[in-house]
Design a protein that fits this description.
The complex is a heterodimer of chains A (100) and B (173). In chain A, helix 1 runs antiparallel to helix 2 and helix 2 runs antiparallel to helix 3. The radius of gyration of chain A is 17 Å and the shape is elongated. Chain A is mostly helical. Chain A contains three helices and no strands. Chain B has two domains: 84 residues, NADH-ubiquinone/plastoquinone oxidoreductase chain 6, subunit NuoJ (Four Helix Bundle (Hemerythrin (Met), subunit A)), CATH 1.20.120; 40 residues. Chain B contains seven helices and no strands. Classes of the chains: A mainly alpha (100), B mainly alpha (173). Chains A and B meet through helix 1, helix 2 and helix 3 of A and helix 1, helix 2, helix 3, helix 5 and helix 6 of B.
Chain lengths: 100, 173
């Protein structure tokens, strides 16, 4: 294992790229994909610290995060399909039903 | 040395394809680059000797979640979106948020670097413990022993998500 700082920097880079995607992209599907990227960056941290301390609990929590990501993707994509069926758009700034 | 080469190889792939994922106009291209990132991350997991997470990452993320994404991208007609503005007009908000994030992380690294030799290992620390051999077995022992209740709660969460997705995507009667 390399020094822990390497993994933290990699995780930080992926996390920040994911945040950029969430904030700037218009396509809601790409926003959801960026959220997956953020969750993945957190997983790298958990697994790296699990190796650092020799405790397998970090990997168990990474598994929970993966399960969460699957649930979130299923529900999010379901919402997108339902919205697209009614309003013919997947662009975030055209989803302004609650705006007046 | 080999560890280093493997790590930097996969890290370079992960970061560069993540950057491409955020910037591509076509959602299908974004999905492909996200798959590359996830596979490279799986390589990092293997380099960390987390074999079980490595397999789960490939089967579940790349084989399950990303296939779902591709399906939805195909289902949702994106030809219109292709010819329109890619980014929302939030560049400055994004810049401020990212700078704040980077500043936070920088402060974290800086304070951690000063705390060498404390209980908390510094950034250059070598492993302080050893993982038991037989990764899948160790994960299973922990998952079905200490974390049995969270495991069951996760199964309920998945059931709820499944029902929610079906109800949401189903055509109105």
């Amino acid at each position: 294992m390399l020094p822990i700082g390497n993994y933290l920097f990699l995780s930080m880079a992926l996390f920040i790229l994911g945040v950029i995607g969430v904030i700037t992209r218009r396509n809601v599907i790409v926003v959801l994909m960026s959220i997956e990227l953020i969750l993945n960056a957190v997983n790298i941290n958990l697994v790296a610290f699990s190796r650092l301390y020799g405790d397998v609990a970090g990997q168990v929590f990474a598994l929970f995060i993966i399960a969460d990501a699957a649930a979130e993707a299923a529900v999010g994509l379901g919402i997108i399909i339902a919205f697209f069926r009614n309003h013919e758009t997947v662009l975030a700034d055209e989803m302004d039903l609650l705006k007046w | 040395m080999l560890d280093k080469v493997i790590f930097y190889f996969f890290a370079a792939i992960a970061v560069s394809s993540a950057a491409l994922m955020v910037t591509r106009r076509n959602a299908v291209h974004s999905a492909i680059f996200l798959i590359t990132t996830l596979l490279a991350t799986a390589g990092i997991f293997l380099q960390l000797r987390a074999e079980f997470i490595f397999i789960v990452q490939i089967i579940l993320y790349v084989g399950g979640i990303m296939v779902l994404f591709i399906f939805v991208i195909m289902l949702v007609n994106l030809d219109v979106a292709l010819h329109q503005l890619k980014f929302a007009r939030q560049k400055w908000v994004a810049l401020v948020v990212v700078l704040a994030l980077a500043a936070q992380v920088g402060v974290m690294f800086w304070t951690t670097g000063k705390m060498q030799g404390q209980v908390w290992p510094g950034l250059n620390a070598a492993p302080v413990g050893k993982l038991p051999p037989g990764n899948a077995e160790a994960v299973a022992q922990s998952l079905f022993g200490t974390y049995l209740l969270p495991f069951e709660i996760a199964s309920v969460l998945l059931l709820v998500a499944m029902i929610g997705a079906v109800v949401m995507a189903k055509k109105r009667a």
